[in-house]
């Protein structure tokens, strides 16, 4: 069975692999300009950001370091609990670092709002956010996000790192699951 057969579980493809790669290339050019002459620390938020991190980092013609943070507010379901837990903290000291947080999605904004406040106390020189997807209609808090890939409708999406019950992260496109998957 080929991995792309799981694409059959999608009712709608919202963003294709090709669109994602074109957008990450655009964002990478902006980051190269904005951070010229600076060392950047890319902080990926596990697990959803694995694909964005891998593709964005390889697209950048800059020296970057990478680190990972694991936080969770979603558990196994499709609704944010609003309670953010640290599952894995950073290995790096953020003092005087130019930090670019790499996220797959901003939904309610609660995860990033919490992360930004947490990072602000660690002495970074700058903190910015890059998110591949954003759901404007779902925002419970406003997040200043310097680099946004796509604004999408307020629907639960999977693929390109985003899961449903830990599955579908390996889909190449981003889409909405068909109703039969939930039953
Ligand atoms: O804006 P919010 O409503 O806070 O949602 C965004 C967060 O939700 C997802 O993580 P999740 O907790 O599902 O963990 P995962 O990345 O390990 O799947 C996603 O990766 C973001 O971190
Ligand atoms: N898989 C998935 N995780 C999320 N976390 C916050 N929003 C979403 C979403 O739409 N899909």
TrEMBL record:
Example of a GO cellular component annotation carried by this entry: cytosol
GO BP: GMP salvage; guanine salvage; hypoxanthine metabolic process; IMP salvage; purine ribonucleoside salvage
Pathway: Purine metabolism; GMP biosynthesis via salvage pathway; GMP from guanine: step 1/1; Purine metabolism; IMP biosynthesis via salvage pathway; IMP from hypoxanthine: step 1/1
Pfam families, A to Z: Pribosyltran
Keywords: Cytoplasm, Glycosyltransferase, Magnesium, Metal-binding, Nucleotide-binding, Purine salvage, Transferase
Entry's EC annotation: 2.4.2.8
Enzyme superclass (EC): transferase
InterPro entries for the chain: HGPRT (IPR050408), Hxn_phspho_trans (IPR005904), PRTase-like (IPR029057), PRTase_dom (IPR000836)
Requisite cofactors: Mg(2+)
Predominant subcellular localization, coarse grouping: cytoplasm
Recorded catalytic activity of this chain's protein: IMP + diphosphate = hypoxanthine + 5-phospho-alpha-D-ribose 1-diphosphate; GMP + diphosphate = guanine + 5-phospho-alpha-D-ribose 1-diphosphate
Presence of keyword Magnesium: yes
Span of domain Phosphoribosyltransferase: 19-164
Family of the protein in this entry: Belongs to the purine/pyrimidine phosphoribosyltransferase family.
Name the UniProt record assigns to this protein: Hypoxanthine phosphoribosyltransferase
Lineage: Bacteria, Bacillati, Actinomycetota, Actinomycetes, Micrococcales
